[in-house]
Specification:
Length: about 55
């Protein structure tokens, strides 16, 4: 089995109390050697630059 490339499906910019960033959504197919897709994975993360002093 192998995972294909991640495909960006969404990017929503936000400002939160920890910093300015974006909620990023992606998906990826997992395929077997024959090329048949066996599953699709979805993920979402919040990537951000922290405000000074936000740690802690």
């Amino acid at each position: 089995m192998a995972a294909g490339p991640r495909v960006l499906t969404g990017c929503v910019p936000k400002e939160t109390r920890v910093g300015r960033g974006a909620f990023v959504s992606f998906e990826r197919d997992v395929v077997v050697e024959s090329g048949e897709r066996v599953c699709r994975m979805f993920g979402e993360v919040y990537l951000y630059d922290p405000h000074p002093g936000a740690a802690g």
